[in-house]
Design goal:
Elements lengths: L2 H5 L10 H12 L1 H38 L7 E5 L4 E5 L6 E9 L5 E3 L13 E5 L4 E4 L6 H9 L5 E10 L5 E9 L8 E5 L2 H6 L3 E2 L7 E4 L4 E5 L7 E5 L3 E6 L2 E5 L3 E11 L1 H24 L3 E5 L6 E5 L6 H15 L12 E3 L5 E3 L1 H10 L1 H23 L5 H63 L1
Antiparallel strand pairs: 1-16, 2-15, 3-12, 3-16, 4-8, 4-11, 5-6, 5-9, 7-8, 9-10, 12-13, 14-15, 17-18, 19-20
Helix pairs in contact: 2-10, 3-6, 3-9, 3-10, 6-7, 6-8, 7-9, 8-9
């Protein structure tokens, strides 16, 4: 019987509030489940904190891996003497300079046909011929210009078409031109368009619509070009199908915006700011771990404004040996000497409170006076720290990862127990409701019998 049904029998015979009695009994019997639920809440909170600090340690491991490379500080920036030339350094960049002139910028071919009202009197094939001789033949579904445009755009031949208004004919009929544009820049994007099939093109009987009367190639397909060592015996011109040159110098991508006879000089130099970010990033990642661990192990006290009693609450990671060991080992490793020298020599300084600071001035001075020694120190610190961080946060067998897996198993078991208690308590409530309902029924029968006996005795007596 449901609790809703038990409400209907409250006090009908006995006058007892059976629903309240059942709820009271269930509150007592449900205490073990409540304890399990509280344990599950604290376990999930613990898991969440472990996952957060594990993520922070993984971040440190990643930064340490990058910083440990023997060339982690070989970061360069390119500057240009001309605003129309820009350059971006890559992984293989090296210090140096390069001077050249920009002969031309890359262009895509653009051509327009003569003005016309229709493409043809009936559906007829058209053939596009690429610069390398590749031919693509399509047949519009009709002789209309719209169908010719559609056929070209769907051809996949690297050419797009658009119908452009071109005034009116002598009789007032609207005229249009087809504007044909290569989809890529550079000389390799040049093309021709013919009325007719590929065989007719080969036979020379097809008409080139871009060289017909009234037609024109508005923009020639053209490569970008730069000239190195102009005016010397070593003069050399380098071309690119786009305005970006990726092979002038290893590790340098150069983009030109306009042609110029004035020499342009690109200078590549080590970027001290980027190099500093590698070292300071290691410190920042370590401090993020220490800060999170500190806030989640702190003990806080609160005083009730009504009762005046004070209660203390420990952080969720308080007492956890796994995270405590990881943080301590990371801290000691970050501050440990490398080849007899302290990391403070490159600006990585541990404070008396156990936190780390980064002294940018010390790092920049060390980088300028002893770049190789600075690199060796940073690589050494990063390698050692990375090993500890990886051992803790490895996604398969890291110590924190293993702890998370174990706690997740605990949470799963708690959920199973809670579900079992739910079934048990549901059955118990139903049993109590049946019991009290039976008691009410029995009392009702007894009262009926009592009333009958009383009436019989009264009639006998009279």
């Amino acid at each position: 019987m449901s609790s809703a049904s038990s409400l209907a029998i409250d006090g009908l015979v006995s006058g007892l509030k059976t629903t309240d009695l059942i709820n009271s009994l269930m509150s007592v019997e449900g205490v073990p489940q409540t304890l399990l639920k509280n344990k599950l809440t604290s376990t999930n909170s613990f898991i969440s904190s472990l996952q957060t600090i594990n993520g922070l340690v993984q971040t440190l491991a990643t930064k340490a891996k990058d910083a440990s490379a023997a060339t982690s500080l070989d970061l360069f920036t390119a500057t240009s003497s001309s605003p129309s030339v820009t350059a971006v350094t890559g992984a293989n960049a090296a210090a140096g300079s390069l001077t050249f002139t920009v002969g031309s910028t890359a262009a895509a071919q653009v051509g327009v046909t003569a003005a016309m009202t229709t493409w043809s009197s009936a559906a007829e094939p058209l053939t596009l011929v690429a610069a390398d001789g590749t031919t693509t033949t399509v047949t519009p579904s009709s002789g209309s210009l719209d169908d010719a445009v559609s056929a070209i755009n769907k051809s996949g031949a690297g050419v797009t078409a658009a119908k452009v208004a071109a005034g009116t004919d002598t009789d007032g009929t609207k005229l249009y031109r087809l504007q044909l544009t290569s989809t890529k820049t550079g000389a390799a994007g040049a093309f021709s368009v013919y009325r007719g099939s590929a065989d007719e093109v080969t036979a020379g009987t097809a008409t080139n619509v871009l060289t017909a009367v009234g037609a024109a190639v508005v923009t020639q397909a053209k490569d970008a070009s730069v000239t190195l060592w102009a005016g010397t015996a070593a003069e050399q011109t380098v071309t690119s199908a786009t305005n970006t040159f990726t092979d002038l110098v290893p590790g340098l991508s150069v983009t030109v915006a306009k042609a110029s006879t004035d020499p342009v000089t690109l200078t590549v130099a080590q970027d001290a700011t980027k190099a500093q970010a590698v070292a300071s990033g290691l410190v920042d990642a370590m401090n993020a771990i220490a800060t999170y661990y500190g806030s989640n192990t702190a003990v806080t006290s609160t005083t009730s404004p009504t009762t005046g009693t004070t209660s203390t609450t420990a952080g969720v990671l308080q007492g956890d040996s796994t995270t405590r060991d990881v943080v301590q080992r990371l801290s000691s490793t970050m501050s440990a000497p490398v080849n007899g020298k302290s990391p403070s020599s490159i600006g990585i300084v541990i404070t008396k409170d156990g936190d780390f600071t980064f002294d940018a001035d010390v790092f920049q001075k060390a980088l300028a006076t002893d770049p190789e020694g600075t690199q060796a120190m940073l690589s050494g610190v990063a390698t050692a720290v990375g090993a500890v961080a990886t051992a803790a946060s490895d996604k398969y067998d890291g110590s924190i990862t293993t702890s998370i897996t174990g706690q997740q198993a605990v949470a799963k078991d708690l959920n199973t127990q809670i579900d079992s208690w739910t079934d048990r308590l549901t059955a118990r409530r139903a049993s109590l409701q049946t019991l009290y309902s039976s008691l009410e029924t029995s009392l009702s029968k007894l009262q009926s019998q009592s009333s009958w006996l009383a009436s019989q005795l009264a009639s006998t007596s009279s």
